[in-house]
Amino acid sequence: MSGTPLRVVLVEDSAADAALEERELRRHGFALDLRVVDTEDAFRRALDAAPPDLVLADYSLPTFDGMRALRIVLEREPAVPVIIVTGSLNEETAVECIKAGASDYVLKDRLARLGPAVTAALEHARTRCEREAALTALAASEERLRLALRAANQGFYDLDVQTGEAIVNDEYALMLGYDPATFVETNESWVERLHPDDREPVAATYRAYVAGELPEYRVEFRQRTADGAWRWILSVGKVVERDASGAPLRMLGTHVDITERREAERERERLLADLREREERLRLLAGRLAESEEAERRRIARELHDRVGQNLVALNLNVSVIRSQLSESSLARVSPRLDDVSALVGATAQEIRAVIADLHPAVLADYGLHTALRWMASELADRSGLDVEAEGDEVEPRPAPAVEAALFRIAQEAVTNAVRHARARRVRVAIEAGADTVRLRVADDGCGFDPAARPPDPERPRYGLASMRERAEAVGGTLAVDSASGRGTVITAEVPR
Prior knowledge:
Elements: E1 4-11, H1 15-27, E2 30-37, H2 40-49, E3 54-58, H3 66-76, E4 82-86, H4 91-100, E5 104-107, H5 114-150, E6 155-160, E7 165-168, H6 170-175, E8 185-186, H7 187-193, H8 196-210, E9 217-224, E10 230-242, E11 248-257, H9 259-325, H10 328-359, H11 362-367, H12 369-384, E12 387-392, H13 401-420, E13 426-433, E14 437-444, H14 463-474, E15 478-483, E16 489-496
Parallel strand pairs: 1-2, 1-3, 3-4, 4-5, 12-13
Antiparallel strand pairs: 6-7, 6-11, 7-8, 9-10, 10-11, 13-14, 14-16, 15-16
Helix pairs in contact: 2-3, 9-10, 9-14, 12-13, 13-14
């Protein structure tokens, strides 16, 4: 290898050792371009100046070492061979160096091995580079074959990136309505056929891809056909050849007519927009129905209080008057009956008050949502004997009345379902206030169910869940149901304040 030029970076802090290694390489016939460094910064600058053909590194230096140099080379110039040169190296450490990626190691007291070791390392690096080049060429060939197979009945192009000329298959021309025998494709003619609104975004995507700023070239655009119509095209391409500087030379790709798909997507978007509009109208209608329902509940509660309640009071007064006007003998005979009437009036009044409270709890309007939920939980616990509690704090500032009413009715429905259908023994109602939302959570330890399954009785669909969801959506919120057979149910409603 006499006269072979060799760029070498030598990591060494001993001038004498560096001179010996240089002399040995020159004796072996190498024409050296040698740079000697002894720090990591100097080593990195040497690599930046020009990639070397070889790195020789002392295994151990005061502030730098051969293993660190090896790692830097593997990160930046993995094709450059690295030989560790050291005064002493045990077998275990030598194996460690080779495993880490070093090409070889040479002891300083046996520098006669340096020339043959360098020759072998350079030959190995050349062979490796040739093998990698062959693998790259094979990969490009396989990629071209893959794209060609995908291009069956699809447009296929082989583009010279530098000249803009392209080789295309017959399907490419037929897709656009041209005679394959006379169709000539170039990058310029392709751009000219693009829809004016698509030219700039498509060109920007192409430029970004060939510049390496995008990992893949995939773009959809409208292309004018021979008869002047517009067809939607999906173009997928890949650069398969570059020059030594990395500039793209060749690009393979396919064109697929996706006009029918785009028309189907446009129709789908139209239908979705129409569906969203309908859902919004239904939401507004549900909101108005909820308001009407609450108004009707208030009216009925007021009528029961003002009319039936007053009649019961009057009836009780009449019983008292009758009792006061009877003689002792007559009172003795009818007193049990009068006592029954009084008791019945009292029980009826109690029932009326419970109905009024259920229709329109005054505590909700007067004291707020959390207080109303605690009252509801207490009433239900007294009536059912179950463990029902409301947790959390009052929401301040108070949400809109429609929001409070919706959350109260959702809680009422959820707790009633837990008691009646879930066979629950324990129910917890919690209210949490966020900056912009209010969250209601009702959890029970009942039998649970599969929310996605059909109701066991088709004649009795789950109106309760549908009603709760409609109430939440009517005030712009959402409702989630988490349940499974045997592990209870959690219903969560979250609505804006």
